[in-house]
Design brief:
The protein is of the alpha+beta class and about 300 residues long. The protein contains 3 helices and 14 strands. Strands 3, 6, 7, 8, 9, 10, 11, 12, 13 and 14 form a 10-stranded antiparallel β-sheet that branches. A two-stranded antiparallel ribbon has the order 1-2. A two-stranded antiparallel sheet has the order 4-5. It is rod-shaped and about 185 Å long. The termini are far apart.
């Protein structure tokens, strides 16, 4: 193989110079001429590959970050929703508890009105229940299931309220009947000093008709209404002294005379057993007692049968 010559031209001086390259010099020069582009190409490819990898990695990290942020927001939303449901259930439970307290109070009132045995109907204690233990897994409830249970319990509670309201109406009617039922004595204690009917007048000594019964007792002791009604007279009345008159249902009127002091006024609504006056000896009287009269449809009747009456 012939030697290769390389001619170098000097433009400034116009001269030239030639160099002969041997076989190894030519090989080295060829290697440099071919290797440099290939090296640059390899370096460019490597840099491009690394840039693409970095771009893919950055894109993947950005996607993961967005997905994580979405999941965090979703968890927060679910937590807020669960908190709202829990608050709603708590408020619903509090309302049911308040209604149950009302029912317990109503039940205690009805027990008292009906005169039932407190041991049998004790609304202050939890209902008695029991039974053998069964092998069963413990119940696990979701919020939706708890809501359904609360709705079912609220419906049962509403039905119980209706039943108690009906019972209250029935008992109120019974209590009203007892209030209007003339029975018992107009005093807590005392004795009949003069019965109804014919007698000798204590002032004239002549026979006379006594339209009531006289019940003697201690001056200042309580005089009681024998039934519920409306006060239609209170004050001084000829022969009676200080008197109270009460109009009841079914055409009944009762009178209480010779009182030391009247404790009610005309138009008052009085209950059975309520103190309406204090025993005295005002008017045409010989001593402390109450003159008790009963009128039915405007006619005087013997109070003795009503004194012996008991509750219905």
């Amino acid at each position: 193989m012939a030697d290769m010559k390389v001619i170098l031209v000097n433009r400034k001086h116009g001269g030239s110079r030639s160099l002969e390259l041997g076989r190894w010099s030519r090989a080295l020069l060829s290697l440099c001429c071919l290797g440099l582009p290939l090296g640059l190409l390899a370096v460019g490819y490597e840099l491009g590959s690394e840039s693409e990898t970095r771009s893919v990695r950055d894109s993947s990290l950005e996607g993961m970050a967005k997905e994580l942020d979405t999941q965090v927001r979703e968890v927060g939303r679910l937590r807020e929703e669960a908190q709202r449901k829990l608050q709603a259930l708590t408020m619903g439970l509090a309302e049911l508890q308040a209604r149950m307290v009302r029912l317990d109070a109503l039940g205690e009132h009805l027990t008292e009105v009906a005169g039932l045995d407190e041991g049998e109907f004790d609304f202050s204690e939890a209902p008695a229940m029991g039974g053998p233990l069964q092998d069963a897994p413990l119940a696990s409830y979701e919020i939706e299931e708890v809501s359904i249970e609360l709705e079912s319990f609220e419906e049962r509670l509403f039905n119980r309220e209706q039943q108690l309201d009906i019972l209250q109406d029935l008992l109120s009617n019974r209590e009203l009947e007892e209030q209007t039922w003339l029975s018992g004595r107009p005093v807590n204690w005392g004795w009949v000093s003069s019965p109804y009917g014919k007698r000798i007048d204590p002032f004239t000594g002549a026979p006379a008709i006594h339209k009531g019964v006289d019940i003697a007792g201690k001056a200042g002791s309580d005089i009681l209404a024998v039934a519920g009604g409306v006060v239609t007279w209170t004050g001084e009345r000829s022969g009676y002294g200080q008197m109270v008159e009460i109009t009841h249902s079914d055409g009944y009127v009762t009178r209480y005379g010779h009182n030391q002091e009247n404790l009610v006024k005309t138009g008052d609504l009085v209950k059975k057993g309520e103190t309406i006056a204090l025993m005295g000896s005002t008017g045409r009287s010989t001593g402390a007692h109450v003159h008790y009269e009963v009128y039915k449809h405007g006619r005087p009747v013997d109070p003795a049968s009503y004194l012996r009456r008991t509750r219905r």
